[in-house]
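Appendix B, record 7
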Amino acid sequence: MQLGPDDAAAAVERHPCPQCDVPAGSACRTRAGKTAAKYHTARFILVPALRDELTVPVPADRGPGKKWTQCPEVAAPAPETNGAPIRIGYARCSTATQELQSQLDALAAAHCTRVFSEKISTRIKIRPELEKALTLAHEIKIAAPDQPVILTVHEMKRLARNAAELMTLSAQLQGGGVQLELLSGPLTGIYDPHGMGSMLFAVLAVAAQLDRDYIREKTLEGQQAAAARGNHGGRPKVIDEDDVLFARALRDKGTPMPDIVKKLTIKTGKNAGRHPSVASLYRALADNDA
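Structure tokens (predicted):
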């Protein structure tokens, strides 16, 4: 947007100067209290149309060097939005066996301008497509500060599963002025990162952490129940208990270890049908003796 000198000055004077503390409605002044020859950079960069300008001249009625006097305050115009909000969609599933299409269909129905998707676990800290979505949203806000930008997801768990990740994402959205939209779940809707909308992230952080703790608790209970039934998980043993008893009997008779392993056969696993190594036999005997 092109502004003439008078229009640029009027736009700048809607804001107080953070450098010389001049109130809105007046030109910048020097330490002696006289009108400055130009506006201070810290003031006119507050006007998006002037951020790339190096100087904004003071209008003729001010007169550089004149004694500064209080002028009527210039009312700031109401912010204008540039049309409909821009929606940036993000879809994610954890494994290759899960499907993304239902999320993509929901994001398409929400009129997302661009959709980023990936198959990756939330336990992985760096999610490239999510980073791209956030970067694009922030770039749009920088280029058009008055343009509403919304990060749209099908449900909250597609973004994060613990409090730390969710609070980090909250800080990124708040810092960039990007809104968050949830298409499903009990908190369906659009949330602004400022004001009451910021409370959502604190609530979701607690809920996400509780959900994570619940999953961990159930996993440990399942492991304990399996252990009580004799299933301890992990890789199958190369040498089972019967082979260990047979090997100990041969060892007690003085049979060399290399000869003992030739009499044993691995029964399960990818090496089934082969003889175990001498080292494996030593470990099996040591574990059994312990």
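Remarks on this record: The radius of gyration is 34 Å. The beta strands are 86-93, 114-119, 149-153, 179-182, 189-191.
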